[in-house]
Amino acid sequence: MTTTPRPTVVVSRRVRSGDETAFEQWLHRLRRALERSPGFAACTITPPQALHPDTWVIVYQFADQPSLDAWRASPERLALVEESRAWLEGRPSEHRLDEPGTERVTLLSAARLRPGAERAHHELHAQAVVAAQRLGGLSHAEVVPATAEGDEDTVALLTFDSRADLDRWLDSAPRRRILQEMEALTEGSRTVSVVGGFAGWFHPVGPSRTKRWKQATVVCIGLVPLACVVTLARDAVLPSLPPVEASILSTVVNVAILTWGVMPWLTRLLGRWLAR
User: Exposed e or buried b for every residue in 122-136, given b needs 16+ CB within 10 A?
Assistant: First the structure.
């Protein structure tokens, strides 16, 4: 079955030190405004982490382009954007792209090129595509050039089949070399965002990943009551199931519910604590 990609907007904002609390309150107002907007589909807000240590990344999606256009032109959004300027450092970055898919993950890298650097940048991007293909998992690559309508950044998109494929590329020597060569072609800092499929139960936060003892604590909070409920339900429905089959069934059900139900909810609920 073919599905129509949902229009997606990726917004990157750097917040001045000391204004984080006010900005987080503003994010709650933004989310409520998005949820009231006709055609709204989803919103993900990611605090500063390893890939973008000083930047908040907001990704929101609408069911169709007219709904997105209506939201972007709405007085409520324009007022919220104007309000947020009081807490920002530098120029906010905003880019549109199609939904990368539920399993795939897209690396979005935006930078302002120096005059005349377009060809050299294109050649380096082509080298990056070849290197990423050799590592495996790259499913789509695209360069969105700067426009005269206001978006002065050139945006490179690399879509991978999974977060593991993306992480392999992020840690690779070819990527580090290519980024070093690209530094001479750009002005200012590069904005890096990840869209879709943040694989795993925990995301990198700040300069390091979530502390292991906190990961274990949250997993126990989710797993212990879930395991009890699954065991009671299994014994009620399949009381004579042999021990090996019963253990396999319980494990599969527990992991599935944890991965797609309990852990996403818990990590959102305890996000601030996990980030400390």
Answer: eebbeebbebbeeee
183-195 pLDDT, tens digit per residue, is: 888 887 677 766 6
Largest CA distance in the chain: 74
Token pair recorded at residue 126: 């082509």
- Per-residue burial over 146-163, b = 16 or more CB atoms within 10 Å of its CB, e = otherwise: beeeebbbbbbbbbbbeb
Backbone φ and ψ for 272, nearest 5 degrees, come out as -65, -40
108's tokens? 């979005």
Amino acid at 120: A
Strand 7-14 and strand 55-62: the pairing is antiparallel
CA distance 262 to 7: 28
Residue 70 C-alpha from the chain's centroid: 24
Helices (H), the chain: 20-36, 65-73, 75-84, 118-135, 163-170, 173-182, 212-237, 243-257, 263-269, 271-275
Please list the ranges in the chain whose pLDDT falls under 50.
1-3, 99-102, 149, 197-209
Position 226 scores a pLDDT of 79
Which residue, among 46, 82, 74, has the nearest Cα to 191 in the 3D structure?
A: 46
For the beta sheet containing 7-14, the strands, ordered from the edge strand earlier in sequence to the opposite edge, are 40-46, 55-62, 7-14, 93-98
DSSP 143: E
Cα 21-196-144 angle, rounded to 5 deg: 95
Q: Which of 153, 216, 217, 221 is nearest to 187 (CA)?
A: 153
